[in-house]
Amino acid sequence: MEKKFTKGEWLINNEDKADICVYSSNCQSRIATISTEQAKPKKTEILPNAKLIAASPDLLEALEDLIFTCEKLWNETKEVKQFEGIALITHPTIEKAKEAIAKALS
């Protein structure tokens, strides 16, 4: 799936008292602005929300790497009798991760 989101590291700039901005380091484009003036979300949630948004590309990459590693290990061990239950445990989790990635990239 093609990744169409802004490339580069995503950072938080909360120098402005009215807004917290998430922006891309390589092109300085604004990705999101969270207003501290709004009642929703709660003021205590604003910075954590911004941090989650800024971490999104890293979380996506880590999840993709984890899926790749899990599938590779599963394929390498599926014939080993002592590991045959691993697929039953990991398959639903891998599918859930793939669905989350598809949702993010759709």
Question: How are the secondary structure elements laid out?
Answer:
Blueprint: E1 10-13, E2 19-24, E3 30-35, H1 43-77, H2 86-105
Antiparallel strand pairs: 1-2, 2-3
Helix pairs in contact: 1-2
From the structure above, extract its key features.
single chain, 3 strands, 52% helix, elongated
Which spans of ≥5 residues are poorly predicted at pLDDT below 50?
none
Question: How many β-strands, per DSSP?
Answer: 3
> Helix amount, in percent?
40-55%
Biggest sheet layout: 3 strands, antiparallel
Task: Going across the biggest sheet, name each strand in turn.
Answer: 1-2-3
| Overall pLDDT confidence | 81
What is the CA-CA span between the terminal residues? Answer: 9 Å
- With helices defined by DSSP (H or I, 4 residues minimum), what is the helix count? 2
What is the count of structural domains? 1
Write a concise synopsis of the structure shown:
This protein has about 110 residues and is of the alpha+beta class. It has one domain (about 10-105). About 50% of the residues lie in helices and about 15% in strands.
